[in-house]
Design goal:
Helix content is 2%, strand content 40%. The two termini are 24 Å apart. The chain contains 1 helix and 23 strands. Strands 3, 4, 5, 6 and 7 form a 5-stranded antiparallel sheet that branches. The chain has a 4-stranded antiparallel sheet with strand order 8-9-10-11, with no helix packed on it.
Amino acid sequence: AAGWRGLADRFYRKQKLYDMRWDIELSRCTRVCAPFGGPIAVARIVNKKVLPQKPDSMPTIDIFASSGEPISSFLWEKGNVINMAWTNKEELVILLEEGTVMIFSIFGDLVNQFSMGKPVQQQGIYECIFWGNGVVVMTNLLNFFVVQDFEEPRPIAMNCPPLTEEPSSWAIIEPRFSSTRQVQVLVATQSGTIIVVDINVPPVDRYLSNGPFLRMSMSPHGNMLACYAASGNVFVTPPDFQGVCHTFSTESKAVPLQMAWCGGDSV
């Protein structure tokens, strides 16, 4: 039974399948993996700038197969990067600080480019969250804008109330899981509640009292939301907040680096 670990009434173990074929320092790089064992994009991004991975080299974004076999590499001279992700079509989408969205094939060819609009350019982008075919950005002035379809990009300002301080965290409900069939943003406030922000519907304050929530993560099926509170407790609730399904204490008040779902039933 060596190597097996118990989780509730099930047991798991990790098995080494093969060595990755790349020669990179992962601890220094940003890595973005496509779902279902797809390609992996790697770049060394420090303070939003893409830097050379090795001395005497140029700044590049490298794309590998899931085995670490190189697929392509392209020179990066486009500007500061907020984040990058893979689309449903296995194209690499990169969001620049000044609001430009660039989409590349796995071979590094630029296939599409558009702007998030003049208001986003003027305000600058603080953070973003991608999903399979769209992106939501939060600007430096704490406003939210969305593009719901990379095929027909149309930036839309979301119906967010004025925020006087940075959210403690935020997450999105993808359109396919949303009750309005539009993307929704869950904004966790420093006061401890969560505000649901939509495009056409007025914002809704859920009037929660067990926050502030420092991390939030939506399950892959969109039916559960995990919220990590400043108290060290994790609350798992439906995204409509009609009752808490599970609560457990991590016995730690440190802010986690990351909180994610493993399948649809484990956090």
